[in-house]
Amino acid sequence: MSEEYRSDRLDDHSSDRVEDHPPRPSRKILATLAVILFSTALLGTVLPVAIWPGEAKLTAPLFCEAPYTEPIVVSDTFSDAEGQSTNYSMYCVGDRGQYTEVGFLRPWLALWALHSAIVITLVILVGLWGRWRHPRATEPERLTESTEL
User: Fold this and answer.
1) For residue range 90-113, what is the model confidence (pLDDT) as tens digits?
2) Long-range contacts of 57-66, Cβ-Cβ distance < 8 Å, separation of 24 or more
3) Residues linked to residue 91 through DSSP beta bridges, in sequence order
4) Which of 38, 22, 24, 27 is nearest to 120 (CA)?
5) Which one-letter DSSP state was computed for residue 129?
6) If 0-12 CB within 10 Å is exposed, 13-18 middle and 19+ buried, where does residue 59 land?
């Protein structure tokens, strides 16, 4: 077989070729992870502040220790020269009224981690479901030599 008809031969301008490689999965995974973390951070800001402030009570097992076992979320609204503001804070209260303040940040970070874990799990399950339902067609083997006619 002549050398000019071989398909596996590299030409002199191989650096000028445009590579037709699909995007690397790691970049796709990192982009998906970034979108998930950003969207769950937004969800974590809206949900416990505007929709359900009591959601922070779900984190009580992480932050409330005996004798302060009852979680309470308190909203404090005040007005100043700049307008009206509301602060949310979680307290752990004991049987006799004693309390410790947990604050807002630690329960919010715990809820963000929980929301992110749930969404990441769902994305993985949907991806696995899609692969199970629609297996990819196998790529035909590449020819190592051309056939002369």
Assistant:
1) 999 999 999 999 998 999 899 889
2) 57/90, 58/111, 58/114, 59/90, 59/106, 59/107, 59/110, 59/111, 60/90, 60/92, 62/106, 62/110, 63/90, 63/92, 63/102, 63/106, 63/107, 63/110, 64/92, 64/100, 64/102, 65/92
3) 72, 101
4) 38
5) H
6) buried
What's the CA gap between 16 and 12, in Å, rounded? 9
pLDDT tens string 3-61: 555 555 555 555 555 556 665 678 888 888 899 989 888 887 787 777 787 888 889 99
Quote the strand ranges of 21-148, DSSP E. Answer: 70-80, 83-93, 99-103
28: three-class secondary structure by DSSP: helix
Cis link prior to 25 (omega < 30° from 0)? Answer: no
Largest Cα–Cα separation, the chain: 95
SS3 state of residue 10: coil
